[in-house]
Predict the structure of Crp/Fnr family transcriptional regulator.
Amino acid sequence: MDPLTSNPIILKLEQFARFSAEDKQVLNLAAAEGVRQIGPRGDIMREGDRPQTLNLILSGWACRYKHLEDGRRQIISFCLPGDVCDSHLFLVRQMDHSVGSLTPVTFAQIPRRRIEEIAAKYPRIIQALWWDSLVNAAIQREWIVSLGQRDAMERMAHLLCEIFIRLRAVGLTDGHACDLPLTQAGLADAMGLSVVHVNRTLQELRSTKLIALKGRTLTIPDLRALQDAAQFNPNYLHLDGDGRHLDANE
């Protein structure tokens, strides 16, 4: 596989606009700086930390989350390969949420000076990162709709559609299947349901043949049918080349 195109951040951001070979080289070099690894259930950033770097997920799954004082956790988004944990962190003095690993995670810590250099010389990359921020905000809005209006089955089906399509965009699906390394407790924390309700909902989706789960593998035999069950419209993921007018000519 071409190393200039296999980097998940390139695969993701090129859903917005096609990059030049130089753009890709710059992103690859930035992603190779400060590579870190962390095991499951660790923190990449904690609430209250002063952000110093932009953190890019290269492999593995993480999540943004908030803890209440009594220990209850709300997962507010999932961070998948190619995701920037927060592209606007240089604007804030301290983290107002935490980012933790759900699986072993490899991530790149890109320092402020490097981002400033890229911003000065490669506007297409920075515009694509703005697009990424827009998509993150759109995902949050859709999660709020799920929490407020969708029933448990719609909520679960919607989340699984979203995860599958996001993974497909960075080449991490295999036909109708993808990795799903989430525990039922993790799904419960993301969807505002009890673990018992999550289990019951997954059983319902299985019994109607909308999904199959085997170990850590999710199979969606008919994505359109699952989308219909969830009332899922993928437009909020903005994967249709919003920035095609910015495409590089080379």
